[in-house]
Amino acid sequence: MIQVLSSIITVKYYITIMSKEENINEPEREPDLREYSGESGVSLKLMNIGLWVADHRRRIFKGVIIFMISLSVFFFIYSGYGYVKYYLAGDPNANQINNNLVIPRVETIDLEAGQMKVLSSNGHTDLLVEVFNANDKYTASFNYCFKQTGADIFCGEAFIFPGEKKFVMALAQEVTGSRSELSFVIVDTTWRRLDAHLIPNWTYFFNQRLDFAVMDVSFESGTASGLSDKLNLNTLDFSIKNQTAYGYYEAPLNIFLYSGTEVVAVNHYLLNNFLPGETRSVKMSWPGSFGSVNRTDVIPDINIMDDTVYLKYQGSAVQ
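^ thats the sequence. predicted structure below, dont judge the formating
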C-alpha cells in the first residue's frame, strides 16, 4: 500500500515538472497592432487617417481651392444674369426721363381710358371717365387732365389698383360750348410692382383693408321730398361700417346714382378718423333732376398702398 501511494506522488510530481517546462519553452504571442491604443486613447485607425491626410494635404488643399473657385464662378454668373435682366427689363419702381415725361422702365400695359360721361345739372357739369388697369401685378399713380379745345378744365392725380376699373372725376365744373370739344388725357404714369413677399395674395390684401359694409340706403328724389317747389333737392341716407382691422385718417367715398345701367349723378363724401369696427350714418343732399334712380353705389377711394393713410392704433370703436 505504501509503495502504491509513493508511485502516485512520483507521477504527479513528474507531470507538474513537465507542464512548467512546456510553458517555459512556448514562444510568446505577437501583439495585434489593430488593438493598439496609446495613453491618449488614439487608435491606430485614427493614426492612419492622420497619416493619409498629411500625405495628401496638397491635393486636399487644391480640391478646396477648386471648389471655392467653382462656387464663386457660379454666383458670379448668376449675379451677372440678374444684372443683364435688370438692364433689359428695368426696375419696375424706377423711371427714366424722356421729353420731360416720366416713363416707367418696364413693359406694362398702358392704362385704358373709356368714353367721357358728361352730367349737367343746375348750371354745373360733372365729368367722368372710366380708367382700366389691365396689369395684375402693378399699381399705378397718374396725373390727368380734362380739356376743352386744348385748354385745361381740371387737372389732378389719382391711383389705380391691379386689374381695377374706376371713375376719374371732375365735379361741379363750368363748361360751355360743345361736348365734342371735351377730351381727357393721362399726362404721366408711375408704376409700382406688388412685392410678392409682402403681398402674396392681392385679393386678400385688398379685402382685408377695404371691407366696408354699406347699409340702409335710402334715396329720395327732390320732387317726392317736397322740400322745395323751385329746386329739386335730392336726399340720400345710408350707414357705412368699417369691418376691417384698420382705421383711416380720411376715408373718401365716391357715390354714384344709377338709372338702369347708366350713371345719372355722382357725388363725393369724406369720413374723417374712421375707426375699425365703427359705423357712421351719412345724410347728404344735392340739387338736380336725376330721373328714376334704381341703384346707389358707395365706393371707398382709399390708397391702401400708402402707409400714411392708416390711423395709429387706437382700439376698436364700441357700438
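Residues 1-5, 95-104 have pLDDT under 50 and may be disordered.
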